């Protein structure tokens, strides 16, 4: 597998905000015509290094999105993508909502979109990627605020909740808010299919009348059944932990997860599982817990800030269990990134880079089924005038 990178001379152009390692751009470039990323921004020096190592032809502004000006953005981009930070709207984190400082970065991005609009250079498509928690944080006020900003700027807005597990052996549900102006992607009259989830339908029902009047249920077909599982992304010859280390980790299993492991060991079969160490609070006391799954999926890759959560691979064979860390390359494969992608040499940086990223095939599906048809790309990759 190779992720094709469109050149900056591709017929369609995109800007990537909160770009991280540039995985949104990899997905955007793999459509029929492909978007060339002409401008990107990220505040994190490690991410910026990774971006430059993989997208030499793209202008990258390293720094706070709030410090950018429209003058730095070349031309009229067809699409602007913003994977705005999600800590504060994450279901897993504190619910500070979009008013909190980090998620407030969305508004730094939005200010730029308004600046481009004043100069007659607004993109026809804007995409916001976030965690599904955006649907309910602030009792729906954050989702309303994002959608209302787009509607006020003349866009038609809709959203899709997409789990990367339909494409890749990783469970990674994410929300994609998609706004289009002057162009229109395929829609359905009423919510249907796996991407208009009950959670999204409930959030839509809470939106203001003016947003709902400009709402679109974007039409997207799920991919054929996935034939990859966790074992297909594993690197060969990765050293496993000592028996004592494995025993210490397995001692953190809850009785339910221990029973799950015992059943697999009793079968004697070779099975590869994913294990995740996290802190759980029980009766006000914090406990380290190891959680296991043997459904062929890796759990959602995360970026631990406190260093206590870790992702492991658990290999059971002939009644014995061995364990090791998930590698940065395996994490990249779980995001649909080809092996020619240059990862940071530090394993923890590579895991952080991938843990924050967007799954490439999900962006590719959006590109092929929604963005390119809206922008007049024909089946042979030509762009209709
Ligand atoms: C969820 S990650 C997006 C990763 C990206 N989609 C990818 O595929 O690698 C959010 C990114 O926003 C960046 N970020 C956070 N606050 C920012 C700010 N104020 N200005 C610019 N970038 C920011 C972080 O460094 C991080 O890389």
Automatic annotation (TrEMBL):
Record has Transferase as a keyword: yes
Transmembrane parts of this sequence: none
Domain of life: Bacteria
EC number: 2.1.1.37
Record keyword Ribosomal protein present: no
Gene Ontology BP annotations: methylation
Reaction equations catalysed: a 2'-deoxycytidine in DNA + S-adenosyl-L-methionine = a 5-methyl-2'-deoxycytidine in DNA + S-adenosyl-L-homocysteine + H(+)
Keywords: Methyltransferase, Restriction system, S-adenosyl-L-methionine, Transferase
Active-site residues from the entry: 86
Annotated InterPro entries: C5-MTase, C5_MeTfrase, SAM-dependent_MTases_sf
Group of enzyme by EC: transferase
GO MF assignments: methyltransferase activity
Pfam family for this entry, one: DNA_methylase
Family, as annotated: Belongs to the class I-like SAM-binding methyltransferase superfamily. C5-methyltransferase family.
Protein name (database record): DNA (cytosine-5-)-methyltransferase
Native source species: Brevundimonas pondensis
